[in-house]
C-alpha cells in the first residue's frame, strides 16, 4: 500500500487563516480493511538546551479532519473497519491555520529518559502560556530551537500507515505602522575641552526611527539623522563613516533553564565618505540633516526571521547606528 499527499498550492508559504487543501492518493494492490484515515495540520515550537540534554516542545495549534470513512457511513453502526478495493483511491482534505497560538505544553527531559513521555501532552492552564501570533517556520533539527508546521496523515488498518510533509508558514504583518518616533540623542565635542549643553564647542546629534520600533523586511531603514549647532565656533563637520547593524537575540527555554544566542548582521557599512554636514558659516541653533540617499537604497534582508515570541522561544532585535563624524 502506498500513500501520497498532494497540495493544491505546492509552492510558496502559507500565512494566518490560510487553508491547506489537497488530496490523498492511496494505492493498494489488494483489498484492505481500513478503520479511519485522518489528516492533521499542526505547529510545534521546540527548544533544546545544553546540546539537547533538555528539550521542551509546545504544540502551537492542531486541526484534524477525518477523510475516511465518509461522514454518512461513519454514523451507521457497522463493523469497525471497511474494505477498500484494490486500485487508487483519492480523498480530498481541507484544513485552516489558526490565527494565534493555542498552546499545550509538552515537556521532554532527556536527563530522565521515559519512552512514555515522548509526544505526551501535559494539560496546563492556558493563562500560563503566551498566546500570540503564530511564529514563522524556522530553524532545523540540529539547531537549539525550531518552529515547524506539519501535515500528517494516519491510515489505521491492521497496523498503522503514516505519511507527513513539512508546510512552510510565514506570518504577514497586518499592523499599522506606529506614528511615534523613536530617537536617540548625544553630543559631538569639537576639540578636547569638557562638553556641556552650554558649551560653544558642541553639536547635538539626533538619530530617529520614523516608524518607531518597527522595521519592515525588504524595506530601507526609515532613518533621520540631524545635527544641531549649539555654539558659535566656526568649523566644518563631515560624516566619514556610517554603519547600520541588526543585533538579533534568541532566548530559548526548557525545564526552567534559559540560553541566549546573539547574531550580528551588518546591513550597510561605509567608510571614507567625506560627506560635509556643516560648513563654517552655519548659524548657532541651525539644524543640519544628513540626506537619506546614503542609506535609502539598502534594504533589510527579506530572509530574516521576524521578531516573535512563543512560550519557549523568543526572537528580538536591536538596531545599531554608528556614525563616524569628524570636525576641523
From TrEMBL:
- Superkingdom of the source species: Eukaryota
Where is it found, in Gene Ontology cellular component terms? cytosol; plasma membrane
GO function terms (MF aspect): protein-macromolecule adaptor activity; ubiquitin protein ligase binding
GO BP terms = ubiquitin-dependent endocytosis
Q: Which residues form the Arrestin-like N-terminal domain?
A: 4-101
Q: Which InterPro entries match?
A: Arrestin-like_C (IPR014752), Arrestin-like_N (IPR011021), Arrestin_domain-protein (IPR050357), Ig_E-set (IPR014756)
Q: Name one Pfam family in it.
A: Arrestin_N
The name this protein carries in UniProt is Arrestin-like N-terminal domain-containing protein
